[in-house]
Amino acid sequence: MGRRNEHTREELREIALQAAEHLVADHGLAGLSTRKVVGRIGYTVGSLYMVFRNLDDLIAQMNERTLEALQARLIAAIAGQPPAAAIRALAQAYITFALAETHRWLAIYQHRMPEGQPLPESFTAKVTGMFELVQQQLALLCPRRSPGEITLAARALWSGVHGICILGFDQKLEMAGGPPIQEVARSLLDHYLVGFTQP
Amino acid sequence: MGRRNEHTREELREIALQAAEHLVADHGLAGLSTRKVVGRIGYTVGSLYMVFRNLDDLIAQMNERTLEALQARLIAAIAGQPPAAAIRALAQAYITFALAETHRWLAIYQHRMPEGQPLPESFTAKVTGMFELVQQQLALLCPRRSPGEITLAARALWSGVHGICILGFDQKLEMAGGPPIQEVARSLLDHYLVGFTQP
DNA sequence: ACCTGAACACCGTTCAAGT
DNA sequence: ACCTGAACACCGTTCAAGT
């Protein structure tokens, strides 16, 4: 036993995160466990703790990678678009990602750090960065509005789109026969922006 | 052992649900377990399965009671209010409940039934009932709008308010220094309704 | 230094056995 | 009929021991 050195620390981290992502994509966050991760990569439980502080740390790092993928799609979606179209493109890209990567996207919000422990700063930084994409386009669209008003509107719209996705996937607000979430989001943006862009 | 008959089935169900509610209120859904529930009520694990199908069933029933409490507050909030004020009152009452009963309210959305298993019909019925409160007030406010438009608007607004609460409590969209969620919700409703009530 | 695997304290669920 | 408590298969985490 011991000392195999088939992988560097960084390689071990990478294959563990990939294994975790596969497990979550297939069975949701509840289907993830340390033992299943190491089972997939041919290591034993203990070795995970060489690379991650614990399971919560692994999940946080996995979710951070999901955020990176999401942000890349968002940035691609607004490329070259004027502000009004960009805001709609951001919402649609968010929904498209949530629809395509449902389990991985859900895991971002399902996971909660234990009581006192905060998320790593790099994590919150990525969330803030994504949020600023909306804020920038809103500021371009409504140059007369104060920074405070822009922040408020960005939060209202982004939270709104997120809520539409969350409740759309839960069985909680059963969508059977209801309007598709793209249309709900479009309604939210269109009507809100009418009110917000007016004098 | 066996055969104590200190409680009827219904009483056992009641004290178990109360114990579960206390555990969740104090430590969140993650702090709930069958063993902790029976520890609190002086029974052993096996006895839980006389009254609940499994832990998921217990949680679903607990969440249904939370929905009942929430709905009661919502109904009280709109009493005697004209439609426009009633819609704002619904949003504020939802936020107030989420702020006061954060863990129990979060548990409604954190819990997910295993793969195939759907939520009991009584559960989805209560969600639908709550949702219809919004729909009714919107229909009163905008009698010209078609039922389809009313449904779309109700879903957009209710999902929006929900998303504002969810992201407000997550560290995910860090609220530090940001506007309070009541104000974000007010912004969402005000601007949306300007656009929606216009010709 | 790297990795194992046993150990520990938990967990959900089942079920033979007791009253 | 009601309830127990042992049993089973899982889980996250730690750490002495091996190379």
Task: Describe the protein in words.
Two copies of one chain form a homodimer. The first copy, chain A, is an all-alpha fold. Chain A has helices spanning 9-27, 34-41, 45-51, 55-78, 83-100, 102-110, 121-141, 147-169, 181-197. In chain A, helix 1 packs across helix 2 (34-41) and helix 7 packs across helix 8. The model of chain A has no long low-confidence stretch (mean pLDDT 93). Chains A and B meet through helix 6, helix 7, helix 8 and helix 9 of A and helix 6, helix 7, helix 8 and helix 9 of B. The structure holds a DNA duplex (19 and 19 nucleotides).
Strands, helices and their partners?
The structure is a homodimer of 199-residue chains.
Chain A: H1 9-27, H2 34-41, H3 45-51, H4 55-78, H5 83-100, H6 102-110, H7 121-141, H8 147-169, H9 181-197
Helix pairs in contact in A: 1-2, 1-4, 1-6, 4-5, 4-6, 4-7, 5-6, 5-7, 5-8, 5-9, 7-8, 8-9
Chain A binds a DNA duplex (19 and 19 nucleotides) through residues 1-5, 9, 33-35, 43-50, 54-55.
Write a brief caption for the model.
2 copies of one chain form a homodimer. Helices cover 73% and strands 0% of the residues of chain A.
List keywords for this structure.
elongated, mainly alpha, DNA-binding, 199 residues, Tetracycline Repressor, domain 2, homodimer
How many domain units of chain A? Answer: 2
The number of distinct β-strands of chain A equals: 0
CATH superfamily of the largest domain in chain A: Tetracycline Repressor, domain 2
The arrangement of helices and strands of chain A along the chain is: HHHHHHHHH
**Can you identify the CATH class of the largest domain in chain A?**
Mainly Alpha
Separation, N- and C-terminal Cα atoms of chain A: 73 Å
Count of helix runs of chain A: 9
What is the average of the pLDDT values of chain A?
Answer: 93
Q: What is the CA-atom radius of gyration of chain A, in angstroms? A: 20 Å
Helix content of chain A: over 70%
Strand content of chain A: under 5%
CATH topology of the largest domain in chain A: Tetracycline Repressor, domain 2
**Uncertain spans of chain A:** none
Largest sheet of chain A: none
The backbone outline of chain A, from C-alpha atoms, is elongated
Q: Largest protein interface?
A: A-B, 52 and 52 residues
* Alpha-beta content class of chain A: mainly alpha
CATH architecture of the largest domain in chain A: Orthogonal Bundle
Oligomer: homodimer
